[in-house]
């Protein structure tokens, strides 16, 4: 076979997952319905249950039990998720991200950097 693509590494799954999660938060409704909130909480719980790295998933489950998803507004969700990512960053010795809505939108929703204009 000429099929040479390899399964994703833990790091690749990590960056892909964070891209999806921060983008979902960035585009989450400003005023979500009760059902939106329920679905987003369930999504995070399912991710923590099925995340494809067993010990990452175990830690994420414990973190969201201690600090359940904040789904009442877009800003709440973006900042909650940023804090969850920082818990993992700290564990891995990576730099922490400043969790303000302006910094998060610049990174995940609407950058003003000319190199990001497509
Ligand atoms: P990533 O951490 O993947 O970050 C990608 C980009 O997000 C960064 O370049 C930066 O621009 C931006 N960013 C960084 N921090 C924040 C933040 N706080 N808020 C918003 N944006 C930010 N790996 C393990 O080895 N052990 C684990 O236990 C583990 N647990 C994980 C749990 C979850 C739920 C997820 C999604 C991933 C987990 N990972 C874990 C993977 C790990 O977090 C990284 O994705 C991986 O190490 C690759 O890191 P990276 O340096 O490429 O950047």
Automatic annotation (TrEMBL):
It catalyses: 2 R'C(R)SH + O2 = R'C(R)S-S(R)CR' + H2O2. One of its GO terms (molecular function) is flavin adenine dinucleotide binding. The keyword Disulfide bond applies. Its EC number is 1.8.3.2. This is Sulfhydryl oxidase. It comes from Skeletonema marinoi. Transmembrane segments: none annotated. The chain holds residues 64 to 181 of 181 of the full protein. Its cofactor is FAD. Residues 6-108 form the ERV/ALR sulfhydryl oxidase domain.
